[in-house]
Every structure is written in C-alpha cells, then in structure tokens.
Amino acid sequence: MLPSKFHHFLRPFCYGIVLLSLLSFSSCYHSSSDGPSKFDATIKTAEDIRQLNQLEKQLTVTPEKAALNPDYQIINNIAVPYVPEYRMGPGDVLEIVYNLKYGKTPEDYRLEVQDKISINLPFYPQYSTSVLIRSDGKITVPLAGDVLAESKTPMELASELDQKFRKYFKDPAVTVAVEEFNVKVAELRKAITTASRGQSKIAPITPDGRISFPLIGSMQAQGFTVAQLEKMLNEKYAKQVRDLNVTLILLEIHYPKLYVLGEVERPGAYDITSVPDILKALAISGGYKKSSELQEVAVFRNEGLERPIAFKVNIQAALKTGVPLTNIKLKPGDIVFVPKNHIDDMNDMIERIFTKGIYAMLPFSTSLTANYNLNSATLK
Question: For 133-137, 141-145, 363-367, which range has the lowest pLDDT when averaged over its residues?
Fold first, then answer.
C-alpha cells in the first residue's frame, strides 16, 4: 500500500490525463455534411415502386444501346456485359487432347520423315532395298543416290526413281511400298499417357509461363487465352503430324491475388476470379469494421507499372452522392488498405496510457470519477 501522500500526488496527474484525453476525443468527434444524397427514388408508396420499375426499364441496355457502349456486346441479339477472356498464368493446369483423324480421304498418302519404305525393281532384285526417310526428307538409293522423298506420294516417288534407273536399265519398273508410317503418331501416343481419357496430356504452366508439348517442345502460354494457344498449337502440329487436331481444356485456374488489409473482418490475400471493384474487395474480406475510416481507403498498385502508385477512395462520400464505386476496378497484386478512424486511434492511445501505461507500472488499484462539461455534454 502506497503512502497517502503518493495518492495526493498521483490523483491530479491522472485527472489531467483524463481531461486531456476527453478534450482530444471531443475535437476528433465531429459530423461532416457532404451535401444531400443523390438518390433516383425514395420508396414510400406503390406509385414510387412503379416509377422505379419504369426507370429501370428506360435504363435497360438494349442491343441498339449496346452497339454504342464498349462495356457491352451483342450475342444472339441479346445485350450482355463484356467480360474479357481469361488469360492464363503460372500454376494454371491444362489438358491437351489429341484428336487423330483416321477417316477415309480421297487424297493419296504422302510420305513423312521416319516412314520406312521398300523400293522394288522386279527385274533387277539385287537393287531392291528398304530405306528410312531421314530428318532431311531424303533417302539414299543404290545407283540413284540421294532422292527427296518427304511429302511425295509413293507413286510419285516410284515414277521419279524409275526415271533415274532408266540411265542404267531399259525397263526398271520401279515400285514403292510403305512398310511403316505415322511414326510421329506413335511417338505422340507414348507421350500422352498422363490423363485417364487416353489421347491427352495434363500439363501445368510453369513459373516462367511455359508448357512443354510432345514433338514441338516448349511454348509460351502465360498471357494467352485458351483459344489463342490452341490455334498456335494446331499450326505447329500441322507441320509435324497430318490429320491431327489439338483441343485445350483449362482444368485448374490459379487466380492472381488481391490483398485486403486493415480494418476489415478477414484481412488477407484473395483469389481474383473476375475483374473486381473496390466494393467486391470489401465484401470478400467480410466487410469493414466499425473502427474503419471509410473516407480514406487506400489502394496501392505496382503490377505492370514503371513505379508504384497509390490513390485514396472516399467510400463514405461516394455512397452518399451516388458515385458508382463499381467503376473503380482493381488489378492483380493491388493492395486495398482500410485505415482506422481517428476516434479508434484515440481509444488505442487511452488503452496504452491506462491499461499498459500507469496501471501497468504502479501496483495499486484506484477509481477515478470526474464530471466535465464539454460542448454542453456531460461526461462522467
């Protein structure tokens, strides 16, 4: 127990702190008027509801209006909001489905690299041979030397060889038969064994934004839409394997992150499933707390810029005046920070002084009561 003289010494000191805190509290607590709210209607009667429905009907985006509005597109004569196509990024998982066409075609088969063919001279069998079409598209034939075979039909190659052999034989009667073909298709089949559906391959986009494809190697995937990458793949495969069609299926999407911090119920990082606005950011984080300062919500942005930028949004004023907050679009990597209001900051200071300050330092308990009249309001 402290001597009574210490009590007399501390009491004015503590009362002074209380008075200082209350005065500061009062100076921070004020009401501001941002002007009248701009609402299109105030619902009180059935007639008000009818007028609101009529207003919505007048503002409905028709195909004629959509033709003049870049935020809309016309699909089957219906105006729908324009949604940009999703562009893939690292971590997304694709399934590449290979569709090989085996239907009958009127065109003759054309030889490909790695095809194995037999060249027959019925009257001169010692010059008959079996050869593999090399990577340069050529074959080596006795007496005739190197001959380009790739992309020719067996009949066209036989005719050309027959002409070359006529330098040595009167009637060579050369024939060409295909022994092994579609070797690349066989290689492709060996490579596409990761999916349960058979002729497909499951592949994630690597951190550097690329995917490795059988036969054609690594390709850039980050930043492309599924349709764009699919078109490029089919163009590349057409040079390697005939009658092949590739279809891409986006199995998993690893969305970019949006960060919501400060005075919200659930601060943290959130996946961006669409182009979000600042209201959606507050909604997905559980909404703002009572202690939040909605006049100074800050957004920090660095993605794709030469230098970081920051801007403040007065959500409170926007809601009062009818400013469409949904027009404030956010981008991947944005940080939304909701600060504390000034009253809550004062409460924190009082908490630090009394709970963690004097009371924590001095081992005694006491009660303080005082009456002050501030701005005609009595505080006890």
Answer: 363-367
Is the Cβ–Cβ distance between 291 and 341 less than 8 Å?
Answer: yes
3-state secondary structure of 83: coil
The structural domains of the chain, ordered by start, are 93-104+196-252 (3.30.1950.10), 116-180 (3.30.1950.10), 257-342 (3.10.560.10)
Q: Give the integer Cα–Cα distance in Å for 150 and 174.
A: 18
Confidence (pTM): 0.52
DSSP 306-359: SS-EEEEE-HHHHHHHT--GGGSB--TT-EEEEPBPHHHHHHHHHIIIIIIIIH
Q: How far apart are CA 27 and CA 178, in angstroms?
A: 95
Beta-ladder partners of 262 = 338
pLDDT computed for residue 345 by the predictor: 67
Q: Helices in 167-225 by DSSP H: which ranges?
A: 183-191
Burial of 260 (0-12, 13-18, 19+ CB in 10 A): buried
